[in-house]
Specification:
It is a single chain. By secondary structure, the chain is mostly helical. The protein is built from 18 helices and no strands. The chain has one domain: Growth Hormone, Chain: A, CATH 1.20.1250.
Length: 391
């Protein structure tokens, strides 16, 4: 039996499916739910910033625990169950202050399982790590199913007030999916004696984390206000869901063929191309939102701005933080990029949305992507002999 057949492919994929199904129901529409509840753009931005900000602490604490106890899947199951439990509090409490506290609480648990599960997946894949994208693509499938279903439902069957119920159901599905994934110890052999601090002091590692942070700063206004922006420009729920789904569909196509790209191109080059297309994407959304065709094209670029850059980052973390530091590396990647970067992007887009306007906010995102491009060009994997991700 080949090594690929020994991998619990469908069980790994099932967790990704439910995790990202919940994200597909939450991310495009939660801001619309908050708007319907009467919150201002600044309050919406702050609430989403709190959710992202919880990643500053959560992945690092859970990642440290995983490295200490060596039972990552056990911690994934606990955090998944507590995510559903804490989110259910939205049915019992209302008001901005209460929702802010609940957001911090369920964000602390929701932001924990994915970086732990990424390390478990790579451990199961072992020498077949190039197959990661084919496992991860089922998360994208789940996202598409959820975003299309919710978008259609908002126009026909249900009202936005029912959104928390659907999200809770998907969180419960995520919890159940985590129960069937077997534990897989993270290998610590073939590891040097470098301390975590010695790794973090490397200029290319510092540059890498800064780039990851800036990528998520640029995505902040997209994740928080893209659906509101489309609604302001006359698009209905179905069209909004279809545009979100188009971006993730492009991501799935990329994941199917990415192993071939990884064989032929360096991680540095993948990041440079992704950031170049990121500049183009945010400028199109900023100034061409009235053209459905151009916005659809911009959504296709999600395959690069998120999909390719994320996979490149996952492999660079694996390269920089080998063995006993892998869990910490994945946690730092999650907290500094999706945490601090997402928090800053969400907060400032909320502050500037009403005062300076959507065009300025998305143009600023393009400028942030250009800055990240320059940092990659100057520092990340600059050595021509830098290792490539091999199939």
């Amino acid at each position: 039996m080949s090594a690929a057949r020994k991998v619990p492919y469908w069980r790994l994929s099932g967790f990704y499916f439910f995790y990202f199904s919940a994200l597909g129901a939450f991310l495009p529409y939660w801001a619309l739910y908050l708007q319907a509840e009467g919150f201002t753009p600044a309050q919406i931005g702050l609430l989403m910033a709190l959710l992202a900000g919880s990643k500053l602490i959560s992945p690092n604490l859970w990642g440290w625990g995983a490295d200490r106890c060596g039972r990552s899947m056990w911690l994934v199951r606990i955090s998944a169950c507590l995510t559903a439990t804490s989110f259910s509090l939205v049915f019992w409490f209302s008001g901005f202050a209460w929702l802010a506290l609940i957001t911090l609480l369920f964000g602390f648990f929701w932001n924990a399982p994915l970086p732990l599960f990424e390390a478990v997946t790579l451990a199961h894949l072992s020498r077949d790590s190039h197959r990661y994208s084919r496992v991860r693509l089922w998360g994208s499938v789940g996202f598409i199913v959820a975003v299309l279903a919710v978008g259609k439902a908002l126009d026909t069957l249900v009202v936005i007030d029912c959104l928390p119920i659907l999200i809770l159901v998907l969180f419960l599905g995520m919890s159940l999916a985590s129960l069937v994934v077997p534990e897989r110890p993270i290998r610590t052999a073939e590891t040097g004696n470098a301390s975590l601090w010695a790794i973090l002091r490397q200029p290319q590692v510092v540059a890498f984390f800064l780039v990851c942070l800036l990528i998520q700063v640029a995505h902040g206004p997209y994740y928080v206000f893209f659906s509101i922006y489309l609604k302001q420009n006359g698009l209905d729920g179905s069209q909004t869901g279809q545009l979100w789904a188009l971006g993730v569909l492009a991501e799935i196509v990329l994941f199917v063929f990415l192993h071939r790209i990884l064989q032929r191109s360096s991680l540095r080059r993948i990041l440079l191309v992704s950031l170049t297309l990121g500049v183009l994407r945010w400028l199109i959304i900023a100034w061409c939102v009235q053209s459905l065709l151009l916005v659809a094209f911009a959504q296709l670029l999600h395959a690069a701005t998120f999909g390719a850059s994320h996979v490149a980052a996952i492999f660079l973390v694996q390269q920089y933080f080998a063995g006993p530091h892998h869990g910490k590396g994945q946690a730092l990647y999650s907290s500094l990029s999706y945490g601090l970067g997402g928090m800053l992007g969400s907060y400032f887009s909320g502050v500037w949305w009403s005062s300076l306007g959507p065009a300025f906010v998305y143009s600023a995102a393009a400028g942030v992507s250009m800055l990240a491009f320059l940092i990659v060009w100057l520092w990340v994997e600059k050595n021509p002999a830098a290792r490539r991700a091999r199939a």
